[in-house]
Design a protein that fits this description.
Layout: E1 2-11, H1 15-26, E2 31-35, E3 40-45, E4 52-58, H2 64-72, E5 75-83, H3 86-95, E6 106-107, E7 111-116, E8 125-131
Parallel strand pairs: 1-4, 5-8
Antiparallel strand pairs: 1-5, 2-3, 3-4, 6-7, 7-8
Bound molecules: carboxymethyldethia coenzyme *A (CMX).
Length: 137
């Protein structure tokens, strides 16, 4: 079951500059984190129970976000939907005809994640995320 929008990912060329713009807009401070497994530096704007906004700057030319910026420029990169059982949800999405980028969930910053291909989702990259519970590694 899809529970809510967990975060919206926005690709940016310069994290420092974009963080300044978004901090001015949103009136809250970002938490900055490097995510080597996804080859991005992220600025996370956390609204508590509401969806986060995450700014993503590529860590190198091989990053998926670097390729995205080259092809499409800055802007909406993905929408992340929260689920409570990612393995079951990925299987269900595949059954419903969505093309999976990840057949199996992998570890992300905030829990287990898996992507659906934008070509099967109206041109938008969709991430499913099962957030880590408190105390869980
Ligand atoms: N949103 C919408 N369309 C996208 C896209 C995105 N984020 N990324 C790529 N595309 C489109 C491209 O524009 C291209 O379309 P055309 O064929 O019409 O030109 C098509 O998808 C193929 O793109 P590509 O540049 O050839 O790139 P790849 O196929 O090598 O990879 C994708 C595309 C989505 C499979 C890859 O980016 C991926 O695996 N993404 C998931 C992981 C990820 O994005 N991680 C980033 C950080 C996430 C996080 O930390 O939260």
């Amino acid at each position: 079951m899809i529970k809510r929008i967990h975060h919206i990912g926005i690709a940016v060329r310069n994290l420092k500059e974009s963080v300044a713009v978004y901090e001015k807009m949103l009136g809250i401070k970002a938490h900055i984190e490097d995510v080597p497994c996804q080859q991005v530096s992220e600025a996370i704007f956390d609204f508590g129970d509401e969806a986060e906004i995450n700014l993503l700057e590529p860590m190198g030319p091989e990053s998926a976000v670097a390729k995205f910026l080259e092809k499409r420029g800055e802007g909406l990169h993905h929408i992340a939907l929260e689920v409570d059982d990612i393995d079951a949800e990925l299987k269900a999405m595949q059954k419903k005809g969505f093309r999976l980028i990840d057949e199996e969930a992998r570890e992300g910053v905030e829990g287990k994640i898996g992507f659906l291909h934008p070509k099967s989702a109206g041109g938008v990259l969709i991430e499913l995320v099962q957030p880590r519970q408190e105390g869980e590694k």
